[in-house]
Amino acid sequence: MSPPLVTLENIQVHFTVNRRLLRAVENVSLEIAEGETLALVGESGSGKSTLGNVVAGLQRPTSGTMRFRGKAIDKAVRKETHKAIQIVFQDPFGALDPRMPVSAIIAEPLRIGGIGTPAERQARAAELVGQVGLPRDALNRYPHEFSGGQRQRIAIARALAPAPTLIVADEPLSALDVSIQSQVLNLFRALQEAAVQRGAGLAYLFISHDLAVVNHLADRVAVLYLGRLVEVAPRAELFDTPSHPYTQALLQAVPRIGKRRSRGVAIRGEMPSPLNPPPGCVFHPRCPKVQDICRTTPPQLESAPGRPAQLAACHFKE
Amino acid sequence: MSATTTDRAVSPWTLRWRRFRNHRTGLASLFVLFLLLVFVLAASPVAHYLGVDPYETDLLSQYSPPSAQHPLGTDDAGRDELIRLMLGGQISLLVGLLATGVGSVIGLFIGVVAGYFGGRTDALLMRFTDGMIALPLLPLLIVLGALDLTKLGFSSEFAHSSAAGFWRVVIIIALVDWTSIARLTRAATMALRDRDYVRSARASGGGAGYVMRTHILPNVATPLIVAVTLTVGRVILFESVLSFLGFGIVVPTPSWGNMLNNAQELVTTAPALAIYPGLLIFITVIAVNFLGDGLQHAFDPRSER
């Protein structure tokens, strides 16, 4: 079996904030397979963007290894990932250089990588403009002339330029209107299908807090809480039979039309500060199932009973 | 603009030039600066044609009114005013542009590096800048002006030539006049370095040099161009201060600055002698400022209407 596209092994990211240690990501091990959409969900401050930055090469992990197709990241592999891994950000207004015409923005990864001649890069930009559903005359225009949804399409076209195998999408829909969200979401899916038809494969690390979007797009879902993975499972399993109480609570919290919210299960309070994480299981102060063991012993990420593909970090997983 | 709606990609510089062309005062300023350049470069042909020597004093024809031989009359030493304005312009424009250019490059470099890397680099460079600002200007100028160039290994022939005086002025001004540009650039750079477009360039493998060149510099251009164009005018006047203090460009070599200074004491007897260089400095400063305005327009895609 060929190695997964990206492997994260015990990734830790720590920051020093006012001389105190902030543990943004703690011991996260994950795999992203070729062509797969892995959704990363969690509340704000759960470390999901930091983890996305690690994968995109924007954040050096404090410890742990990231592998690309089985190879640990060194200088040569880094060169490869600069082309193979691209990133799309949340805010379509900050993601595009206001001084650059769209053609230059889209061709930028090619220019940096020294791929092709200027004429070839321009041709590729023109091709991509069509592929992401922008008007052909977009090339010579500037970002300020476009709406939020169109700008996000430009950002996606830019990410697609070097024919990447993985796009890290950091909340790419959150800043868009709901009607635009579905269009851009469908674009993400269409691009993945187009890549499959070319025989190339395009994986997404899709960072989101919108479970409805995740349900629509993801193959697998990883739930992050206070920088730790609490549950990793195929989409259907996670949505049908959530194993971790936090995941259960998250799913409970999704508002649904025609369904009265059941009381009592929803979690209370806020996520504790990553500057001062609670001992034992980090979720225990908010957990409805909390027992003595949770206050002292951190649980391991292990298969849920009877479902080997579904991993959860809980002493009382279902 | 109809030309931008083609689906063929046009280079950013072409688009910038198009926007500059649409900026009427900017274009006019470029023309005015070109005329000024022709005016100052015409010094020796015109001197030859009129048959006058701009350095020859003739105390019998002091303050003579405009005539065929002296179209703008003569100054307090009987020298032809027009030719001296042309020659002085060569010095003043060159000092203005060179000193501003060198100073801006220093300031831009220090500002971008400090702002982009932050942390210790930033602290070091900015304390150095603060130190530079805190130095009292006048004693510093006097020390720099009194520096004996022969001790620095230059030949005594060069040290006493007018070229040495010229370069001394350029270097002195550049060394003291970069601080405001550095601070401005640093602040603007810090606001830009964590933008998502900078981060996506880094994710694609763009190094610090690439990011500074392609993303930081064009985006700090707007506040910077204004500061730089204002500097040009200031530098031309600064040169006259240096000349007044007795180093740099000293008479008989003319510059607009020292001509203006010289005319101060004659303002009641020969006001025209103050008006001519003053007017030329004024025109230059205005033209450079409007040129800056036009450049700003050219660099800002949002200005296109």
In short:
The complex is a heterodimer of chains A (318) and B (305). Chain A is an alpha/beta fold.
Write up what this structure looks like.
The complex is a heterodimer of chains A (318) and B (305). Chain A has helices at 48-56, 75-84, 102-113, 118-131, 148-160, 178-198, 211-217, 235-240, 245-253, 292-296; strands spanning 6-17, 20-32, 37-41, 63-68, 71-72, 85-88, 166-170, 203-208, 220-225, 228-234, 301-304, 307-313. By secondary structure, chain A is an alpha/beta fold. Chain A has one domain (35-58, 74-279): P-loop containing nucleotide triphosphate hydrolases (Rossmann fold, 3-Layer(aba) Sandwich), CATH 3.40.50. In chain A, strand 1 and strand 2 form a beta hairpin. By secondary structure, chain B is an all-alpha fold. Chain B has one domain (12-51, 70-303): MetI-like (MetI-like fold, Orthogonal Bundle), CATH 1.10.3720. Helix content of chain B is 71%, strand content 0%. In chain B, helix 9 (179-192) packs antiparallel against helix 11 (208-245). The N and C termini of chain B lie close together (8 Å). Classes of the chains: A alpha/beta (318), B mainly alpha (305). The interface between A and B is large, with 43 and 31 residues.
